[in-house]
Amino acid sequence: FKPDAAAGLVSPWKFKGVPNDAPALDEKAVQTLKPDDSWKTIVIPEPEPRSHWWQEQVRQEGYVMGLDKLVGSGQKFIGVATVELDKACTKYLNTGASVGAVWINGKQVFKDSGTTKGFHGGRERLPIQLPAGDNTIVVETGGNFILNLADELWW
Question: Do 118 and 146 form a contact (C-beta atoms < 8 A)?
């Protein structure tokens, strides 16, 4: 069994762990983020196969499982990625696992309500208008996450 990767996966990411008691990001803090060599690069899907069948399935789909093992100890992580577009368009932001908040180009576009809705990718699906050129995505997450920008609402 080999599942397809989620449409519109965002990759690569630069991640760092933050203290569990660190304040949540806000738009001002997001705009000052500057990933450097201390941030860990994560490519999705992760290249290393997993021994457990379910973890291997979700790895192939584009989930990142266990940021604490990939980036360093912690329960809270910040990731930054860039998506380049040739023209302005609408994409559908899909989140899953433990994604807590997402900013695109410095503006918060998603914040988890705290109500458990499941682990699956696409548990939240939001239309997002993106300009042509580089688009910076910032995610605040727990140890597992999936985030993609699909061309269609249902993928």
Answer: no
Report yes or no on whether pTM surpasses 0.85: yes
Phi and psi (nearest 5°) for 68? -60, -35
Q: How far apart are CA 83 and CA 96, in angstroms?
A: 19
In tens, the pLDDT along 5-43 reads 888 999 999 999 999 899 999 999 999 999 999 999 999
Tens-place pLDDT, residues 95-116? 988 999 999 999 999 998 776 6
Instruction: Please give, one letter per residue, the 3-state secondary structure of 90-119.
Output: EEEEEEEEEEEEEEECCEEEEECCCCCCCC
Is the sign of the CA dihedral 73, 116, 49, 52 positive or negative? positive
Task: For residue 12, give both structure tokens.
Answer: 């690569």
CA dihedral 81, 115, 93, 73 (to 10 degrees): 20
CA 10 to the chain's CA centroid: 7
Fill in the amino acid letter for 103. Answer: W
